[in-house]
Write a structure and sequence with these properties.
This protein is α/β, with parallel strands linked by helices. It has 11 helices and 12 strands. This is SDR family oxidoreductase.
């Protein structure tokens, strides 16, 4: 397949580009800057210059290729308004890409987030979150999946709160950044809440499998660790950085505080059985040992 990818230079995106090329696919990747274009070409991808917010460029990329993987998302998490702007851009992008691919049987795989299920690990059958800071994103993904009835092979790979590589990435990476800034390896709540996690290379393998074979209207869980206690994460960060480990109020973590404090384990049992996905990368706690003081 010749695959159009957005967000191809991020933690997940760079792993997806490598995964696709290693398995015989070719890649056309969106690049906004000269630096991104250079990185993508060095990785072996073709480059389409443009901005994720330019839906005409997105349509052009989709029209030239056999399928799309959408991974782009804004990086400004400083406030609910900033997050809402990123979600609005993503919603417009998914609408444009879906319309371009409608009725063609060409796949569109987008990223989403694992949901929360009270008192248990969430599964692929649970609906996405449609309330709170990221609720609108869940509604956008539901709209995309609903286009299966109109001939779109659209699927969602649900990523856990931490996609990690070399001790960086996701919510655990945010805890480490906060620790460096404040001098305390902090955690919200009582620390017993659990976060799912996955190594970036394993997530990339699932995006490829979904692209190749997943039917339209389906969601899949890229979950390696079903649930890691947040206090355990903070303790590794504190030890690696030589900082005290302390409970902090939710407000210390900005708009993500309430989400950080939520118990949110997630299962990938169905994904493994149905798509043959087998994560092989290091666990989150193992990978956090790569954090440099």
């Amino acid at each position: 397949m010749h695959v159009f990818i957005t967000g191809g230079t991020g933690t997940v995106g760079s792993a997806v580009v490598a995964e696709l090329l290693a398995h015989g696919h070719t890649v056309l990747a969106l690049a906004r800057s000269d630096a991104s274009a250079r990185t993508l070409r060095e990785a072996g991808a073709e480059v389409l210059r443009g901005d994720f917010a330019d839906v005409d460029v997105l349509r052009s990329g989709a029209a030239q290729t056999d399928g799309v993987i959408n991974l782009a998302f804004g990086r400004d998490y400083s406030s609910p308004d900033a997050i809402a702007r990123s979600i609005a851009v993503e919603r417009a992008a998914l609408t444009a890409l879906g319309e371009e691919l409608l009725g063609s049987d060409r796949p569109l795989v987008t990223s989403s987030g694992t949901p929360v299920a009270a008192g248990r690990a969430s599964t692929e059958n649970d609906p996405p979150m449609t309330e709170g800071v990221v609720g609108e994103r869940g509604r956008s993904v539901l709209a995309l999946l609903g286009l299966a009835s109109r001939g779109l092979r659209g699927t969602a790979v649900r990523l856990p709160r931490t996609v990690h590589e070399q001790g960086r990435g996701g919510f655990a990476g945010m805890l480490a950044e906060t620790a460096r800034r404040t001098g305390v390896a902090g955690y919200p709540g009582d620390g017993t809440q659990r976060w799912p996690a996955v190594h970036a290379r394993d997530a990339a393998a699932l995006f490829r499998l979904a692209l190749e074979s997943a039917p339209g209207g389906t969601s899949w869980h890229a979950v390696g660790d079903e649930g890691v206690r947040v206090r355990d994460i903070a303790e590794v960060i504190g030890r690696r950085l030589g900082l005290p480990v302390e409970q902090l109020p939710q407000e210390a973590f900005g708009p993500f505080g309430p989400i950080f404090a939520t118990d949110q384990p997630s299962s990938s049992a169905h994904t493994r059985q149905a798509l043959g996905w087998r994560p092989t990368g290091p666990s989150l706690l193992e990978d956090l040992e790569n954090i440099q003081p």
